[in-house]
Input
Amino acid sequence: MKIKVSAAKRKNKDIFIKTDFIRLDSLLKFAGIAQTGGQAKSFIQENTVKVNGEICTARGKKIRQGDIVSVFSVDYHIKNEN
Output
């Protein structure tokens, strides 16, 4: 018996912000990834969040246009609404 295994395909989503930056924990709530600030903090502390390909544990990290935040097999591309 052969078992075929493949990795789940990553999804891409655009997140539009109106300001120059948004804090990482606020972004997780804004994007609907976390329902509360406490949940956002837990996701960040559990090393499940990457910013531009690197694990980020700073919940106050400033996320700007052009950054890519990866959580749960989804890449969120940050763009300015302007």
